[in-house]
TrEMBL record:
The lineage of its organism: Eukaryota, Viridiplantae, Streptophyta, Embryophyta, Tracheophyta. Substrate binds at residue 177. This is Peroxidase. Heme b binds at residue 207. Signal peptide: none annotated. Keywords: Calcium, Disulfide bond, Heme, Hydrogen peroxide, Iron, Membrane, Metal-binding, Oxidoreductase, Peroxidase, Secreted, Transmembrane, Transmembrane helix. It holds the Pfam family peroxidase. Its EC number is 1.11.1.7. It catalyses: 2 a phenolic donor + H2O2 = 2 a phenolic radical donor + 2 H2O.
Length: 341
C-alpha cells in the first residue's frame, strides 16, 4: 500500500492525467479492505452449524410459556419493538439496570422478559449451543413464534445479532411513539429507524393482540378538551364501554385490550376497528382519519393477506435496526446482565 501511495505522489508531481483513475483505484481498494473487515450481515441460517436446533428450542419454550398465559404474546412482541427502537435490536432492554426502568418501559409485562429468559435457559442446556446464541436473536425468534401462535403468519427470521453491553434510562427519552402522536410524528420516528409509512401502519397492526392501561387513554374518554369530554373521533358507544372498564377512580394500571373484537387473535380486525372509530389511542385512530394513511388502513382491513405480507416485511426491517454483528457486542450467558470482563 505504501508503494502504491508513493506512486500516486509521483504522478501528482508529474501532473499525470491518469491521477483521477489512480485515485479511483485507491478508493476502491480502501473500500474493499473496509468491506472485508466490517461486521457480518444477518442471515437466516446463521446458527446452522453452531446451534442447529435453536429455532426448535426457542419454539418449545415459547409454546410452554404461551400455554401458561396468553399475555406472553403481546408482551414479547412489544418487548421486541421497544428494544429495537431505543438502542437497536441488541437486547439492551433485557438488562436489569437501565431502559426497563424508564416510564415508557415500566409497563412492559414481565411475561415477555420471562419468555426470553426461559428460552435462553433451554438453549444453554444444549451442549452444542452453549454460549453461542444471543439474547437479541432469541427475542427476535420468540417474537415470530408468538405472532404465529396467535394465528399470525410464520416467517423466517434473520439471525446473527449480538447483545449490547449498555442500557441506560436516558437512552429511552424521545425514542418511542406516544399514544397522542399524529401521523407526521409517527412517520418521523419510524423514518428515523429506516421504516416507511406502510411499515409503520403494518406494525401498528400488532395492536390486534395488544393491551394498554387506562392511564394511557383516559383523556380521550373523560377530558379531551375544555369544550369536549370525549374525543369526537372515538366511536361513542365504544367510548362508553371504555368508561365502564376504566371509571375515574379505578386503578390506572388496569389493562384493556386494544382490539375489543378478537383480542387473542393476530388478524386484521384492528384495521376494521379503526374504520369504525374504535382505535384505542389517538395514534391508532389517526391512521384511518388522515388522508395520507387512510387507503392503507382500508386495504389492510379488506385484505388480510396484504396486511400479513406487509407485516412480515416491516418486522424483518425492524429486526435490522441498529444491530450489532461480527465482533461487536457480546453473547450474554445471563440475558439480564452483561458479561464481566
Amino acid at each position: 500500500m505504501k508503494q502504491f501511495i508513493n506512486s500516486i505522489e509521483q504522478r501528482v508531481i508529474m501532473g499525470a492525467p491518469s491521477i483521477i483513475v489512480v485515485l479511483s483505484n485507491l478508493l476502491f481498494c480502501l473500500l474493499l479492505v473496509c468491506a472485508q473487515t466490517s461486521s457480518a450481515e444477518l442471515s437466516k441460517g446463521f446458527y446452522g452449524n453452531s446451534c442447529p436446533n435453536v429455532e426448535q428450542l426457542v419454539r418449545s419454550a415459547v409454546e410452554l410459556k404461551f400455554k401458561q398465559t396468553f399475555v406472553t404474546a403481546p408482551a414479547t412482541l412489544r418487548l421486541f419493538f421497544h428494544d429495537c427502537f431505543v438502542r437497536g435490536c441488541d437486547a439492551s432492554i433485557l438488562l436489569s439496570e437501565g431502559e426497563r426502568n424508564h416510564p415508557d418501559d415500566i409497563s412492559l409485562a414481565g411475561d415477555g422478559f420471562d419468555t426470553v429468559i426461559k428460552a435462553k435457559e433451554a438453549i444453554e442446556s444444549d451442549p452444542q449451543c452453549t454460549d453461542k446464541v444471543s439474547c437479541a436473536d432469541i427475542l427476535a425468534l420468540a417474537t415470530r413464534d408468538v405472532v404465529n401462535l396467535t394465528g399470525g403468519p410464520f416467517y423466517e427470521v434473520e439471525l446473527g445479532r449480538r447483545d449490547g453491553k449498555i442500557s441506560t434510562i436516558a437512552s429511552v427519552q424521545h425514542k418511542l411513539p406516544h399514544p397522542e402522536f399524529n401521523l407526521d410524528q409517527l412517520n418521523s420516528m419510524f423514518s428515523f429507524n429506516g421504516l416507511s409509512q406502510i411499515d409503520m401502519i403494518a406494525l401498528s397492526g400488532a395492536h390486534t393482540i395488544g393491551f394498554s392501561h387506562c392511564s394511557r387513554f383516559s383523556k380521550r374518554i373523560y377530558n379531551f378538551s375544555p369544550t369536549t369530554k370525549i374525543d369526537p373521533t372515538l366511536n361513542l358507544q365504544y367510548a362508553f364501554q371504555l368508561r365502564q372498564a376504566c371509571p375515574p377512580k379505578v386503578d390506572p394500571r388496569i389493562a384493556i385490550n386494544m382490539d375489543p373484537i378478537t383480542p387473542q387473535k393476530f388478524d386484521n380486525q384492528y384495521f376494521k376497528n379503526l374504520q369504525q372509530g374504535k382505535g384505542l389511542f389517538t395514534s391508532d385512530q389517526v391512521l384511518a382519519i388522515d388522508e395520507k394513511s387512510k387507503d392503507t388502513v382500508d386495504l389492510f382491513a379488506s385484505n388480510e393477506v396484504a396486511f400479513e405480507s406487509a407485516f412480515i416485511d416491516a418486522i424483518t426491517k425492524l429486526g435490522r435496526v441498529g444491530v450489532k454483528t461480527g465482533n461487536q457486542g457480546e453473547i450474554r450467558f445471563d440475558c439480564t446482565k452483561p458479561k464481566v470482563n
